[in-house]
Specification:
- By secondary structure, the protein is mainly α.
- Helices cover 97% and strands 0% of the residues.
- It contains one helix and no strands.
- The chain is rod-shaped and about 120 Å long.
- The N and C termini lie far apart (121 Å).
- The relative contact order is 0.04.
Amino acid sequence: MMPEEVSLRLGQLEQAVHRAAELISRLKAEKSQLVGERADREERLVAQARELEEQRTELARLRRERGEILAHVDGILKELDTLELG
């Protein structure tokens, strides 16, 4: 190889290394951003799961309460029927 060819090839390699270094830097920044976004999403997902569980618990409580109220109303209606018949 001629010295000019070596110099030209060395310049090309230096440019390629520079581009690769810039790309690595951009990819690291993107990765950092994505890791942060993922952490935020995970936190929101955990909060939503917690809220869903609280809502399920509340729904179960309300269903029990509804059953109790229906039983109480049914008892009152039966008592009224006996009073009207008596």
